[in-house]
Predict the structure of Protein-glutamate O-methyltransferase CheR.
Amino acid sequence: MIDNEEYRQFLESVRFVYGYDFTDYAEASVIRRIRAFMESKRVGSLKDLGRMVLKDEAAFEHFIQDITVNVTEMFRDPFFYKSLRKNVINRLATYPFIKVWIAGCSTGEEVYSMAILFREEGLLERTVIYATDINQDALQKAREGISSINNMKSYTENYLKAGGQHSFSDYYKAKYNSVLWDKSLRQNIVFSVHNLAMDKSFNEFQLILCRNVLIYFNQALQSKVIGLFYESLCSFGFLCLGNKESLLFADKRTCFEEIDKKEKIFMKTK
């Protein structure tokens, strides 16, 4: 059993020592992941966990890797990508230079999916994709551009459903049990650590994707992060959320127009 006061004190200590703020994350979800981490490390109490991770940066890195969620795949939710091709790409093509922010990029599958889509739409050469995440271990995997060959069948199916225009195998090279994504896809990607709960806007973008991240935040943090995206978007820029997410709790919800209700694509209008 994790005591509520102990839980709050632990999160405040993590924020003070490392600058990671989990205080506005969905409590039940964070507690569940903390318990799982404690069980895996055979830690008996939250106080013991605090002593372990607050004094040992390496231990804290392992904690962050476990507590942040990294569930992703290439062309996840294929019809979202179809909607992007239909409703967004033509408008992005009017810009001489395109900046895309993928917030909460995890191990990079969504990043490489977007790079492939932009390549096929003839926009990749004038696009920079900024891929950020709180988890440095996940970011390193994303930078390496390596995936398991066991996933290629399902990834290929997703790609085709998403409106893929070529052979999916054109975009990677298989070696042993892994595949390496084509180097040309990585040339216009910038990977960086960014903490949505604490960090500020760092550029102006035409397109922001933050899919299946807000579901782990409470309502106050969801609104704060939507405000961050609002500040980071150019006029008539696009914001894409996960299919279980919405602008319902955001102060800036009236500043966006719904482009695709089902696929959660919005355009900044005010």
